[in-house]
Fold:
Amino acid sequence: MLKDNILKVVDIKKSFAGVQALKGVSMEIKAGEVHCLAGENGSGKSTLIKIISGVYTPDSGEIHFGDKVYERLTPIESIRNGVQVIYQDFSIFPNLSVMENLAFNQELANKRRLVNRKRMRQIAEEAVAKINFDIDLDAKVGSLSVANKQLVAICRALMFDAKLIIMDEPTTALTRKEVDALFRIILDLKKQGIATLFVSHKLDEVFEISERFTILRSGEKVITGDTSELDNKKFTYYMTGREFEEEPFVPKNVSEEPVLTVENLGMNGFFKDISFSLHKGEILGITGLLGSGRTELALALFGLQQADTGTITIEGKPVKLNTPQDAIKNGIGYVPEDRLTEGLHLPLSIGENTIAAELDKLSNKLGVFDEEKKKQEINRWVKELAIATPDPNNACSTLSGGNQQRVVLAKWLARDLKVLILNGPTVGVDIGSKYDIHQILRGLAEQGLGIIIISDDIPEIITNCSRIMIMKNGRISAELSAEEADEQTLTRYMM
Amino acid sequence: MNNRFFKDLTKRNEFYIFLVIIVMGVLIELRSGQFFTPNNIVDLLSALIVPGMFALGAFMVIVSGGVDVSFPALASLSMYATTRILLDVNYQGGVWLPILMSLAFGAILGAFNGVLIATFKLPPMIVTLGTSSVFRGIMQGVLNSKQLAVIPKGMSSFGTAALFVAENPQSGLTSRMPVAFLALVIVLIIVYFFLNHTMYGRGLYAIGGNEVSAHRAGFNVWLIKFLLYVGVGMISALAGMIRASMMTQAHPTNMLGMEMMVIAGVVLGGTAITGGAGTLTGCMLGTILIVMVENSLILLGVPTFWQSFFLGVLIIAGMGISALQVTRASKAKGSVVREVKQ
Structure:
C-alpha cells in the first residue's frame, strides 16, 4: 500500500430521539487526498463530521486512526489524532486580533496561565507562514473579509500537526476568486501530505477539487468512488435518488404590454442609468458580481432603499416606491437573499409564516382573524407548494432550506402579485429542492406573473430565464436573450 | 507613523471622552475659576473612589457579554452585615478584619450570581435583577437594617485618614486625599494585569466575542464566568466597605440606584454593551466624566436637579458617537447592504 488510510470509520450508527441520522456508514480517507463528502440537507453529513471530530458519540461502530481503534472518541483525542474541523462560522473571535485568534488554542493546550505577547506573535507568525498568508497580525478579525476569516481558521487548524482538515461547506460565502484561492491552498496542503475532507453539495466544486467522493443520502452511504468517473447526471442521481432533466425555460404566455418598466433608475454610489421592462409571463434574470449593484437594484424595486433618479412604471402607471408597503400595494413581491433573517420568522409556525403577507385579507373590519379562513388558506399553500411537514403548526426553523424557501414563496403568492423579485432563490438549497423551486417559478410565469431572478448561479440563470441582464459596476453591461447566453459570454460581461 | 497614530487616536472613543472632560474642565474653570484648583481635583478623585471600583467590576462583566445590576445591593448587604456583626461584638481592632469580612461576603454573594449565570446559563440581566432584590430583601428583612450612625473605630479612622491635604491658595479651602484612594489604584492595577496578562482575562474578551468559539478553543467558560462574578462581588463589597468608612456611618440604602450611573460611565467610555470590546482607559475616563457631571456642575452654576438631564444627554451622545462610527465603518466598506451569509 502506497497510501495508508489515515482515517477509517466502520459501520457508524447514530440516532437522535428515535430518528436514525446515520444507518451504518463506513468510509475511509487516505493520507493527503482531497475527499469530497456530499449529500443533501439532512443526509447525515454534519452528524458524520461531528462523530469524526468527537463531538458526538456513535451508537455503534468503530473509528480507526491508523492502528488505533476507537469506539468512542473525545474532541481532544480526535485533535491528537490530527483531525481539525473548520466550522461554517469559523469559530473565531471577531473582537480580537488575528494574533490572539491564532495563538489561543495552542496557549490553552499548553495550559498557559499568563499572556506572553512575544510568544503569541511567534506562534501566529509560524501559523500564517504555513500557507504564505499575508495579513496584519494586529488587525481585528471582525474587520477582515469572509475569505480572510476563513484563512485565519485554516492557519489555526494547521498548527496542530493536522493530518486531516475537515471543511464544512467552506465556499458558501466566498466569491469565485476567493474560492480559487482556497482551492490553491487545499492543493498546497495536499503536497504537504495533509488530507482534506471537503463537505459540499455544489457539484462543480466537487469535480474541480476532489479526487474521491462519498455521497450520503438519508443516513446511508450511496457510493464512494473516484471523481473522474462521476458526471453531472450521476452526481444528481446519487444525491437525490431522482433524475432531473432541466429543459431551458421557454415563456409561453408573454403579455403585449410590459407589467413593469424601469427608466434611467439610479441610486447614488450603487447603480446608474438602469432601464428595462418586464412582461407578464417572462422570467428576467439579473446577474453580476457581488457589489455590482444587483442587490441594491432589487431593494430599490421593493422600496427597501430609495432610488435617487429615474421612474418605475407598473402597468403603464408611474409609481413611487418609498417603502415595502408601497411595493406590496402595487403588486410587487420580494424574496430576499438571506431568507433566514429577512424573509421568515423562524420561531413562528409554518402556517403563520405562509399567511404573513395577507393578514389584512384574513381579518374582518375590526382586525379580528377569521380562524376558519386562516386555516383553509394555510392548508391550501402547504399543499400547493408541497412543503414537507407533518404539521403546519411546527416552527419554521424545523424545515430544511428548500422547504423554508417554499414557505417564503407561499407568503408572497398568497397575495395577488404582478411582479415577483427573487434574490438568490436557491442559495444554500440542495439540488432536489432547487429543481422543485425552479419548476414552481416556471409554473407561476406561465400563469401570468412577471418574475425577476437575481442570482450569481450562472447555470440557474441560463436554464430558467428567458432574458438575461448583466450588471457591472452599477450599470447594465449587456442584455441577452436565453439563446445567446452561455457561461463564457455571461462571465465575460460580468468581469 | 505620527499621522497614523493620530488617525487611530481620533477613531477611539477614549479620545473624545478625554476631549469632553478637558472642555468641561475649561468651561467650569472659566466660569468659576475653581476647577483647576488643587482642592477641587482632590475632591473629584476622592469622589471617584467608589464609582470607580464599581465601574471596574461592571466593565469586566460587560466585556464578558453580560451585565450586572446587582452590585450596589451586593455592596450594601456585604458592608451592612460586616458592620453590624462587628458592632455587635464590639470590635475595636484595625480596618483589616472589616475589609476581609466584606470581601468574604462579596465573594459568597458573587458566587450566588456566578452559579446562576455560569452553571444554569440564565441571562445575567434577569439573574442580577433578581439577586439585587434578594440582597435588598435580606438586608431589610433578615438584618432589619437601619442607618448605623456609629461604625467600628478601625473603619472610620481608615475612612478619614489622609494621604495628603490639598489647599486652595486663594480661598484657603482644603481637601483631604483619602488613603482609600490607594484601594482604587490597587484594584485598577490588579484588574489591568488580570485582563491583559492572564489567559483568564483574555478568556473574558473571547467569551464576550463568541462564547461557542471560546469553548471550542479550550477556554473553561464555566470557570471563567464563575470566577468573574465572584471577583466582581469582592470588588463591589470592598467599594461598599470603603464608602461606609469614608462616610463614617453605615447607610443601608444610599448606594442603591448607582448601577445605572456606573454602567452609563462604562458604556460612555467605549465599552461595547454587546460584549468583547472596551478598554480600561475608556472605562475610567467615562466614569470620571460622570463623576465630574455629578460633582462639578454646581460650579458651573447649574442647579443640581439638572444633573440627571445632563447625564442623560451624555449617555445618548456617547452611544450616538459609537453608533455613528459603526455606520461610517460599514459605509467605508462600500455598501450598506449585508453580504450573503448563511
About this structure: The first helix of chain B runs from residue 2 to 10. Residues 73 and 135 of chain B are 6 Å apart (CA to CA). Strands of chain B lie at 162-167, 174-178.
